[in-house]
Amino acid sequence: MDYGIIFKGIGGFYYVKFNDSIYECKARGKFKNQKITPLVGDYVRISIQDEDKKLGMIEEILERKTELLRPTVANVNQAIIVFSIKNPLPNIILLDKMLVLAEQSGLDIVICFNKADLDVDFDYEKYEAIYHRIGYPVLKTCALEGEGIDALSVYLQDKITVFSGPSGVGKSSLLNAVHEGFTLQTGEISEKIKRGKHTTRHSELMELKNGGIVVDTPGFTSLSMHEVAPEDLKEYFIEFRMQGESCRFDNCMHLNEPGCAVKEAVERHDISKDRYEAYLYILNEINELKRRQKKW
Ligand SMILES: Nc1nc2c(ncn2[C@@H]2O[C@H](COP(=O)(O)OP(=O)(O)OP(=O)(O)O)[C@@H](O)[C@H]2O)c(=O)[nH]1
Ligand SMILES: [Zn+2]
Fold first, then answer.
1. What is 230-295's CATH superfamily?
2. Does the ipTM surpass 0.95?
3. Alpha-carbon torsion (156, 162, 164, 169), positive or negative
4. Which of 80, 91, 152, 172 to mutate to test the pocket of ligand 1 (most atoms within 8 A of CB)?
5. Which residues of the chain are under the pLDDT cut of 50?
6. CA 241 to CA 227: how far, in whole Å?
7. Among residues 182, 109, 110, 108, which one has the least CA distance to residue 143?
């Protein structure tokens, strides 16, 4: 490959993986002039300044396919959204919010229900069916006993993946099961580092044995819907998109408009009532946020 990937950045130095080596690189001054900051995840062309010392210079940054804000990483193309079937029980509205944010970022999505070894006391089959039907892969995994780990591993190949999900669902444990010795930085640890050194911790990429790359900090942890415009929300409910084309009004919000194909699909059970209600709930929350912003 002619290009390397920035795995890590510290104080103006970028650690670029190129031809199986890590080069410590600086970026050409022209990027600063153009107000471009190289990001972890950027595909870059480097010139090698010193092969023995593995020093290089970033000459070119390829156009970013995606750009996440929290964590700030370029070119992530997949989110694994993890919940556990118990301890803690899944919060489905949180799952729907994470799906919205991952869709907004243009990522491929895999939903993972972990802790399959525990007794289920929520309706797993129901939710498995809801999300599977609209096209999301749904995995049931057990990080401790290995169920579903091979399937998860396959999804991680050849991708740059961010793990998302609430605390304690087993994100680190899953990664460790895929690749022994790997753990995600938890929210708690990064807080500690922040307090200790008074610096912001930047995310890094980690390469797995199977060639996949993962971001070392979980994504979509602050689930504020601030950056989602009310009129865009419907686009991020993927099963509404196609139906929505048949609504009488082009700008139908699928609320009380006459001739709304989405509402008709809900009546026919072609769109899940749970998902439609999640849409209403999140839309209301976004509108509330907007109202409060205006007030202040
Ligand atoms: N029974 C069971 N427990 C699990 C499983 N996977 C993880 N755990 C346990 O759940 C707890 C939390 O696991 P972590 O991997 O730290 O969870 P996390 O999502 O990385 O949590 P944060 O770092 O807080 O974001 C630990 O005590 C794990 O041993 C599983 O498949 N089954
Ligand atoms: Zn409609």
1. Probable gtpase engc; domain 3 (1.10.40.50)
2. yes
3. positive
4. 172
5. none
6. 20
7. 182
